[in-house]
Amino acid sequence: HLFSKYRITHMSYESVHGHGKAGVKTAYLWGAWEGVTLMVGDTLGIPCMNYWTGTIKKTAGTGRASKDMMIEAAKQRWDCCPFDDNESDALWCAETCRLEQETINAMDNR
After folding, report:
1. Residue 50 belongs to what H/E stretch?
2. What is the Cα 74 distance to its own chain's centre?
3. Angstrom distance (rounded) from CA 86 to CA 94
4. What pLDDT, on a 0 to 100 scale, did the predictor assign at position 19?
5. Nearest in space to 58 (alpha carbons), one of 22, 108, 93, 24
6. Which of 24, 63, 75, 99 is the most exposed place for a label (fewest CB within 10 A)?
7. CA-to-CA separations, 40 to 27, 37, 51, in angstroms, rounded
8. Residue 37 and residue 34: Cα distance in Å, rounded?
9. 49: closest CA among 109, 9, 106?
10. What is d(CA 96, CA 74) in angstroms, rounded to the nearest whole number?
């Protein structure tokens, strides 16, 4: 499967802490998506990490970055051009997870 083919060791995603105008239906959909994500991670033994928006934005440079700032920071950080703010957010979310795991591993190796 893709997880072993690409040697995926962690999954990360942005926490949703508001559903805006979409309301209850969006909350149900989000809960179902999160449940399936956590189930897949548990089944495969892959930790699932969720991060608040501000935490992801801090990884990109500032906790109050706009969508355009996040995209620009991603272009400067990686040799790729995010197509949109969703791709940029995904890159920064993965980077947040990578940095956190790097810190944990360094502490474990003391």
Report:
1. strand 48-51
2. 14
3. 12
4. 64
5. 93
6. 24
7. 20, 5, 18
8. 5
9. 9
10. 13
- Structure token digits, residue 20: 């805006």
Write down the pLDDT at residue 100: 95
SS3 11: strand
Are the C-beta atoms of 8 and 46 separated by less than 8 Å?
Answer: yes
User: Number of C-alpha atoms within 13 angstroms, CB side, residue 51?
Assistant: 23
Please name which of 47, 45, 53, 62 lies closest in space to residue 98, comparing C-alpha atoms: 47
Helices (H), the chain: 2-5, 23-44, 53-60, 67-77, 85-108
Regions of the chain with pLDDT less than 50 = none
In the prediction, which pLDDT does 101 show? 93
